[in-house]
Amino acid sequence: MREDLLHYIWKYSKLPKEHLVTTKNEAISLIDMGLHNHLAGPDFSNARIRIGGQLWAGNVEIHLKSSDWFAHHHETDSNYNNVILHVVWEDDMSVFREDRSEIPTLELKNYIPKHLLHAYHKLFDKRNFNFINCEKDIGTVDGFLLNNWLERLFFERLESKSNLILDLLEKSKNDWERVLFILLSRNFGSKVNGDSFFDMARGLNFSIIRKSYGNIVQLESLLFGTAGLLEDDAVMDGYYINLKKEYGFLKNKFNIKTTRVLPPQFYGLRPSNFPTIRLSQLANLYAGRQNLFSQLMDADSVSRIYDVLRVSASDYWNDHYTFGKVSKKRNKGLGTRFIDLIIINTIAPLKFCYARQRGKEVDGLILEIISGLKKEENRVVDNFKHHGAPIENAMQSQAILQLYNEYCTENRCLQCAVGASLLGDKSRQ
């Protein structure tokens, strides 16, 4: 038995409506269960309950055992003086407020429907699942309910991604262009080099990037140099030497201080994901477009975002993956799947945050854009698909990642629409 089940029972009124009594045999009539409080203080606030013929308005506290009241030291906490009912699974002792007045107690164990308890134990019985608690039933959940829940989870994920954006905005004094550059850099680095590129972008004075718009040599030298990729004196390649000289010139001109960043990695990557290729692509993105932030924020469709982000690495990289080593000729343009990840991880969160700060509503547009992208391919998404969850686009795959990371792995089934639905469906018992 977990306390979250008692919260669920109280919040959703899974109790008989009649014949409730306190442990002192006083009649209870539930008029308003109150508002669920997820912060400090009593579990439910502003409840209205008739006890023994007297109408009370105040808070409700929930515990597995009455003695938990004292284990949590509520008897000395003034925040709990307005508790009008103590709801417990098992009443093992009387409890009191700070002024020593006794609080009425409702013991739940004799009131809970057996089918609900059976469903609860089935959901949390580890013998029934290998991946997630509801893996045997998630594919049968009502489609309308599931789709609504996934939309909520998608925006919940956007909210969590907003924390980094808001932090970067504060540190950059609300410079949205700089924040875009930092986030793009991080995503161009992907999983392996994301932290390295993030360090590089934060270490660069973005005003120098602004002054270098349109000059690909300057931009590439700044990115490669700051990332620590222009420090090999043994490379005699003309392109490399030119970039190294340009970086030395820019360091003197702008008084750039050398800062150590996490070294970018090549090992384990496909050549098309080498940091050299990604940094050249990023440099070309800024070389060919001024006001990149405005262009992306104004883009109102997937195709328009694609138009802005479709760039290639410099010609040198057509037959190179690393400095000085010739390879088979191949254009190094950004692929659609890579652009999709940039839209998911950078553009959508930025659109969401930017609209919030300006008091505008773009949730529908963001949904339309993300729903127009293919679902992501990873272990979590594949497992949900295997167990019958309908995942067809990137909005759903992002929502599924939020569901798995924040609910499934934390056993927050009773705070999940899927878990709550399974618990309340008697036909499954």
Automatic annotation (TrEMBL):
InterPro entries the UniProt entry points to: DUF2851
Record Pfam families: DUF2851
Lineage top rank: taxon: Bacteria
The name this protein goes by in its record: DUF2851 family protein
Organism of this sequence: Cerina litoralis
Organism taxonomic ancestry: Bacteria, Pseudomonadati, Bacteroidota, Flavobacteriia, Flavobacteriales
